[in-house]
Amino acid sequence: MKKFPLLGELTPAQFLRDYWHKKPLLIRQAMPGFKPVMGVAELAELAARDDVESRLVTRAKGAWSLSHGPLASLPPPDEKQWTMLVQGVNLHHAGADAVLRQFRFVSDARLDDLMISFATDGGGVGPHTDSYDVFLLQAQGRRRWRIGPLKDPGLVEGLPLKILSNFEPDEDIVLEPGDMLYLPPHYAHDGVAVGDCQTYSIGFRCPSYQELGEAFLQFMGDSIDLPGRYGDTEAAPAKHPAEIPRHMLAAVTEEMNKVRFTDDDVTIFLGQYMSEPKPNVFFDCPAKPLTPARFAASAAKRGLRLSRKSIMLYRGKHVFINGESFAIGRADKASLEALANERGLDGAALAFASEDVMDALYTWYQDGWLELA
Description:
With 373 residues, this protein is an alpha+beta fold. It has ten helices and 15 strands. The strands form three sheets. Strands 1, 2, 3, 4, 5, 6, 7, 8 and 9 form a nine-stranded antiparallel sheet that branches. A three-stranded antiparallel sheet has the order 14-10-15. Strands 11-12-13 form a three-stranded antiparallel sheet, sandwiched between helices.
């Protein structure tokens, strides 16, 4: 896919310094001449699948309605004020994936997905906020955005959507195809279609520390080693049988204080956690896998590329792919880091891959995590 200026006059470094996580930015013609990568009918086919997250939002006579996919049917195209939202389109469509990958000036550990919303005239989801950074790229038609700092987080009660009850915008913007609006987390916004339109939302992962902490404790549960068993070696007769003994509390506290974690533990946890595919992601394994020898020969000739659904990260001596971690030696570091960064390897690069790397690549090929280019 053709590359675009994306950030207008700004470099990625300037954008990250001055706007990222701080304030909105309107970029006119971030993608000049941009056209939707898929039509509404093709998008509707995705929304009807049970492995794709989708929603239908309608508004009739002021009443909001929300339906979760699979969406077997949609309102008539000439009916106003309805919106179809399809999450993770990049996992299923090469063109959508190519759009998403243009935002890799932010780490893959943060890059989440591309959602496409199609709306008929007047369609939208109401004024709301998101907990994550988002780029809103206009792909078809026009959409009017009213935006402003969140002053009151209160929500309208009794609705199936989280709609702000006291929305006070301070900017009014209409996006044309190719225009893009960046919004930091928790910035209030309301988008309404002006005629039929498609908007692409490029979202970023923003896990809460509570979520990370709970997951980390589960992760550490597999590596804790506290030998021995509690025993009252110097117990005295209990005066108050229901009271927990002081010496028992002290002994258990001493043992619990032996639980430690290192930077390496956090690295492995974070790499596995941030590369874990979402529950509705399923990989397409080759129907008739090549033998290891034929795979190696074909890979040397054609090269390899990661599946659109694969998330591959690395840090130091660790490589992470789809929730699994591998410790790598110095000889293998360059080829695997190149695979992660470029999301592919040409045949020439594979000539330097070790036997261990080729074994791993073959396993990933069998699992559908990567494919022959």
